[in-house]
Amino acid sequence: MASLTGTAGAVPDRPARRLPAPPARALAAGAAWLALAGATYALPEEGDFPYTATFAAGALGIGLALPLAALLSSARLSGRLQRAGARLAHGTPWLAVLALALLAWELVTAKFALLPMPFFPPPQAILEVFLDDWPKLGGSILASLKLLAGGYLFGAAAGFTLGVAVGWSKAVGYWAHPVLRFVGPLPATAWLPLAFFVFPSSWSASTFLVALATGFPVTVLTWSGVAGVNKAYFDVARTLGASPRFLVLRVAIPAALPHVFVGLFMGLGGSFAVLVVAEMLGVKSGLGWYLQWAQGWAAYANMYAALIVMALMCSGLITLLFRLRDRVLSWQKGLVQW
Amino acid sequence: MLTVDALSKTYADGTQALSGIGLSVAPGEIVALIGGSGCGKTTLLRLIAGLDRASAGRVQVDGETIREPHPSVGVVFQEPRLLPWLTVADNVGFGLADVGRAERRARVVRALERIGLSEYGRRWPRELSGGQQQRVAIARAFVPQPRVLLLDEPFSALDAFTRRGLHDQLLDLWAESKPTILIVTHDVGEAVTLADRVVVMRPRPGRLDETVAIGLARPRDPVSARFEEAVRRVMAALDRSLRPAKPRRDLSPEGRAGWW
Q: Which of A45, A128, B17, B53 is 20–30 Å from B232 (CA)?
């Protein structure tokens, strides 16, 4: 008992005033970035890269900012800062590995030229694309997003409507089912040659193809969702005076929404593929076209830059869809986190 | 007034589920249907609710024939069947689609108060216990103020303690608007606790057997001698119903129920 009270007495009443030292992890990650900065700046290069110093300065900035940010967030100045600090601490190992990967990439390309040069540009060459060619790259993103949004929204809306109709009405199901079975599994890209001469413009043709790629999975999953709704819910709703319209809108559709979202995810993945192919083969804008163009001019750094941007765009859109689902389906338990 | 007249149900495969059911329940009366499983209790309730079509006979509520689900007939199922995508409050208010927003809200709030779940209005059904969910289901059925309320073994999945509490709450809600109640159960104690009359059913094909009048004032004391005597009378009727059916002329007049 005496020892217990003794221990309790040794604990200070207030947290220590002085700033705690930044965690060792943040220091290590910072060191990795500083090493990247140093190696990039100091080692001689096999080639001429105008943005080497900029890249080194960026790495230096991150290398200095990391321990500083960790220090600030552990100082318990505010709750928000602390939460940001917790996120940072979680990401620190990744940041360290990223720096090391960039360092390795830097060394095997610009510094020692171990990889064939035009095909494998160093990081600063890609940075150069972002800094010098951003208007064209940005325009391509916008063009891609516009095409994707038009086709996806149209396809999702059409697929959803058709899916509900097929799932709900036996008559619609009778006529739609064979068509869906016959045409649905055909990859949307197979329509490409046909679409480009049937439609008045390559843009409308591509919109149609993206819509097709989105529409099929959305239709099938909405249909299965609506058809699989627990009949008990319909009984309950009917005894509470629900009309057929009400049964569709307030029972069948909400109950089918988890399935619909699976369809929307699958459709989004499919629409990315069709988008890029359509842009490479017909549309004269967008990231797919940019990729094609960069490859044609042997501008490989531009190609990598476009790939990075494309990855960010697709991942961002998937994240957006996940957010939407989490909001709409908050009544569901145990959703997969993205 | 709920009137069931010569109601029969034969399934497509020829199985006769119900045969010649006749029953009339006075306004505000509580009748318990009791019998083993497979004697068509649930089928009978679904026919009365208008969820299924009868092969013959008819159901009337205050002279109006029920052919499909009707706002004057409410149902509480064996499972709560709350719609998982609606909050508890929206579930309770589901039957009030045609009622103005303000009034709907007021009635939902009142109903939640009555069942002691005021703080749970904005929760999801899955966050509630089984007993709480069934309370919400009962409130949902009462809120549109049906003239007839059908309950299909509503408490059979709950433990004895929860069940006792729910009996009280059911009677409480019933005392307010006095709907006619037809409750299916396989628990004799529950039947005697709730009902004015207990009707025993016989299986294959499902038909009504004896009717036992309970004749106890409410609130009922489950440990009183009169309660136990009523339980014994229901038990005895249940026992007789389990014996092989005898020719009709052997049945004493008191032992008959309905029209057959």
A: B17
